[in-house]
Write a structure and sequence with these properties.
The protein is of the alpha/beta class. It has one domain. It is built from five helices and seven strands. The chain has a five-stranded mixed beta sheet. A two-stranded antiparallel ribbon has the order 2-5. The longest helix is centred in the middle third of the chain and has 22 residues. It is globular, with a radius of gyration of 15 Å. The C terminus is likely disordered.
Length: 150
C-alpha cells in the first residue's frame, strides 16, 4: 500500500514565486517535508488560500491564515475541502493508499471528509503542540532522542 502525506503550508515564506515545496521556510514545514520525502510515496501541501498544492506547483508569496480566523476556516472547509477530497477520489482509490496527515489543527476539517470517503488516515501528531510535533518528526527521521538537527 502506498503512503501519501499531507503537510501544512506555513506562515513563513520566501519572497517571490517558487515551487510550493520551496516557498514555505518554517521549521515545522521543513521537518514535515523531509519526513514526507523520506517516508512517503507522494506528498501534497495544504494551503488555506490555495487548497491542495502539488510540491512543484508554482506559488507566489501570499499573506493568508486560518489561525485565529473563523471566517477563513469556514471558507476553507466550504470551498477547498470538497475539491481536495474530489482530487483524492479521482487520483487514488481509497483501498490503495494510506494518508499520513501532518496537518496543523487549523486544517483538521479536512480529515473527517477524507475518512468518510473511505480513506485510511493516520494523524501521528494530532493534538501535539508544535515543539512535540517537531520532536516526533526528528525521531522518525533520525531515530534518536538526542539533539535536534534537521
Amino acid at each position: 500500500m502506498k503512503t501519501v502525506c499531507l503537510i501544512s503550508c506555513g506562515s513563513k515564506k520566501r519572497e517571490g514565486k517558487h515551487p510550493a515545496k520551496d516557498l514555505y521556510i518554517g521549521n515545522y514545514f521543513a521537518a514535515s517535508r523531509k519526513y514526507a520525502e523520506k517516508k512517503c510515496h507522494a506528498y501534497y501541501i495544504i494551503s488555506g488560500l490555495h487548497g491542495l498544492l502539488g510540491k512543484d506547483q508554482e506559488v507566489e508569496k501570499y499573506e493568508y491564515s486560518l489561525v485565529g480566523s473563523k471566517k477563513n476556516k469556514f471558507e476553507f472547509k466550504k470551498t477547498k475541502v470538497p475539491g481536495i477530497v474530489e482530487f483524492f477520489l479521482n487520483t487514488y482509490k481509497p483501498d490503495t493508499i494510506k494518508i499520513i496527515s501532518l496537518l496543523s489543527e487549523s486544517y483538521s476539517g479536512l480529515i473527517t471528509p477524507l475518512k468518510e470517503a473511505g480513506y485510511s488516515v493516520d494523524e501521528p501528531c494530532a493534538g501535539l503542540p508544535i515543539g512535540k510535533r517537531n520532536k516526533w518528526l526528528h525521531e522518525q527521521l533520525v531515530g534518536t532522542r538526542q539533539g535536534y538537527l534537521l
